[in-house]
Amino acid sequence: MTNEEILSHIDHTLLKATASWPEIEKLCAEAVSFKTASVCVPPSYIKPIHEAFEGLNICTVIGFPLGYSAKEAKLKEIELALAQGAGEIDMVINLGDIKNRAFDRVEEEISALKKAAGEKILKVIVETCYLTEDEKIRLCEIVTRSGADYIKTSTGFGTAGAALEDVLLFKKHIGSAVKIKAAGGVKTREDLEKFISAGCDRIGTSSAVALLTGGGAAGY
Question: Phi then psi for 198, rounded to 5 degrees?
């Protein structure tokens, strides 16, 4: 697998709370130079990135990183993000609803956010480190029915990141139109190749550009 092939699957990511504009600017310049799939950044940076980097695919996060904000708040976040220039949305589910087995509420929320996103890509972060296998399978079914574009393993801020066994489990239970994104802890070339070969269409990481090209930002 060539560097170019790997980088085409990367959401070049910087989501640390202290991320500064010079760091974000560097991230974006790298994304343009190395043709990553997107940059994944805090919502507060969407507008300046959109103004400074014409044509760059901007991904942002909604309800991040804990997911327990109200559905209405998440919808407002999406509305503003799209208006400012975001092309992709990574939303965090309400894990409390999962633990309460309120699966209908989870599906309702994802469906509403996908409707708000329209033709833009919606990725659903399920935070696998907090889920049982049964909950992961249920979420594969929910994400499929809701019309979301991706199921994503992790925020990168939980107790653990992406695990290969979860990607393989997702592959067995998601619908044919749903893709997989891994995030958190995918840091070596071997990891990158392994996750892509296992079926990940996207990988969220800050380290891929640095690893493959000798320079880059850090923080995810």
Answer: -75, -15
Distances from the Cα of 193 to the Cαs of 66, 174, 184, 202, 213, in angstroms? 29, 21, 15, 11, 15
Q: How many CB atoms lie within 10 A of CB 134?
A: 8
Q: Establish whether 181 is a catalytic residue.
A: yes
Which listed residue (74, 123, 152, 179) is catalytic? Answer: 152
Segment 97-119 shows an average pLDDT of: 98
CA distances from 22 to 26, 44, 139, 207 (A): 6, 14, 38, 17
pTM value is 0.95
Please say whether the beta carbons of 136 and 128 come within 8 A: yes
Q: Class of the 3-213 domain?
A: alpha beta
Q: How many residues does the chain have?
A: 220
Q: What is the CA radius of gyration of the chain?
A: 16
Q: Which token pair is 98? A: 């999962």
Which residue among the candidates 11, 90, 149, 191 is catalytic per the annotation? Answer: 90
Residue 220 pLDDT grade (very low, low, confident, very high; cuts 50, 70, 90): very low
- Residue of 74, 136, 179, 181 marked catalytic: 181
Residue 215: pLDDT band (50, 70, 90) is low
pLDDT tens readout for residues 161-204:
999 999 999 999 999 999 999 999 998 999 999 999 999 999 99
